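User: Run a structure prediction on this.
Assistant: Running it now.
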Amino acid sequence: MKLFDMNHDWLRPLWVRVLIVVVAGGWGVFEWINEQHVWAVIFLVMAGYAFWSFFLAPGRQGEADRPDDTGGGER
């Protein structure tokens, strides 16, 4: 059983994946500047994990490799 499904359809658009990484990383930097280092580390680790999972992980299906769900074809 996987805790997070990184291939979920909601995460298909590139802008959603980039937004997740940027928001988590930005919030981590914000917390670090405000000297809340525990929260900063938590959010920076989240951003790092998201970046690795979305863009660097081996076996991650790219946009072109995913099956087309448009309904074209015979049923």
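Residues 16-56 form one domain.
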